[in-house]
Specification:
single chain; mainly beta; 6 strands; globular
Length: 71
């Protein structure tokens, strides 16, 4: 369940076993989270930005402020 945190920020912690880095922009391809890119309209449909990563979980910000101070 997404949880809000200050200034209307919506974020969610997601179990993930990939190499996403803080600050990267991601999208969901219908099965898994993947990096968004500008090679086609469908691949550019960004949904969030990686705010933090801990082991096998990532915190994704869907709207609002992104705090990368723990980077």
């Amino acid at each position: 369940n997404p949880s809000g945190a200050g200034a209307g920020t919506t974020k969610q912690t997601i179990p993930q076993t990939n190499s996403f880095a803080v600050g990267e922009v991601i999208r969901h391809d219908g099965t898994v989270w993947v990096l968004a890119n500008n090679t086609s309209e469908s691949q550019a449909e960004a949904l969030g930005v990686i705010e933090s990563r801990t082991g096998t979980t990532i915190t994704v910000v869907f709207s609002g402020l992104i705090d990368t101070s723990e980077r």
